[in-house]
Inverse folding.
């Protein structure tokens, strides 16, 4: 399996959806959601876009380091983190179902661990130079 291409596909899809959901929030939900819900929506979009870009960078790194377990793990953690973090915030805004709330920090934790995996990869590369 070409993980680099897979992560680039996921990153592109996530970035596309972030732009679409950002526009939907700004134009379609402005009259429907409260000010706080719009702020939450924007947070979800922002985190999704930043982590889509991070996932694209991971994809590029995997072109050179094709079987690096830290990069692969980081890619999956970023993917799951985006789904849990941003997805739960979107769901909270659209449904007002409070049970989505506890899912958000799980996603945040996955994103943090993903960044720690990249940090570990980088540290190992520095030490090997």
């Amino acid at each position: 399996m070409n993980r680099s291409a897979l992560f680039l596909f996921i990153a592109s899809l996530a970035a596309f959806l972030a732009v679409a959901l950002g526009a939907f929030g700004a134009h379609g939900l402005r009259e429907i959601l409260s000010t706080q819900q719009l702020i939450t929506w924007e947070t979800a979009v922002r985190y999704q876009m930043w982590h889509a870009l991070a996932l694209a960078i991971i994809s590029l790194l995997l072109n050179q380091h094709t079987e690096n377990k830290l990069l692969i793990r980081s890619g999956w953690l970023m993917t799951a983190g985006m789904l849990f973090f941003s997805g739960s915030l979107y769901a909270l805004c659209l449904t007002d179902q409070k049970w989505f709330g506890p899912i958000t920090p799980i996603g945040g934790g996955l994103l943090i661990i993903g960044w720690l995996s990249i940090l570990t990869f980088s540290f190992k590369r520095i030490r090997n130079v």
